[in-house]
Amino acid sequence: MQIQEKTVGDVTILDLKGKMTLGEGDELLKERINALIQGGKKKLVLNLEAVPYIDSAGLGELVRTYTTVSRQGGSLKLLNLTKRIQDLLAITKLLTVFDTFDTEAEAVRSFSSASV
Predict the structure, then answer these.
(1) Full set of structural domains in the chain with CATH
(2) What's the pLDDT at 112?
């Protein structure tokens, strides 16, 4: 898995590319998120447009990331879910946990209307 980072205002967007599976992206994501949180970045968006597959470890990592960011007073949102990932989140009832967006502009704008 590859992670590209960019900033729009005070929002950090991580463009994820590749499968999010055990040993193939979950650790990389964990390290990147921890570094961002320690650096004071609390408005995070994960762009999943180029993630074709998430297994149970990847799903666990998404939940862990959400929990870590929330505990630090931050907010994590998901962007560009593929149909497969959207179905997976719906089946596991996680679609109600995450804020999801179809466009980067909507995701960034959502932070200014939230009280984070």
Answers:
(1) 2-113 (3.30.750.24)
(2) 87
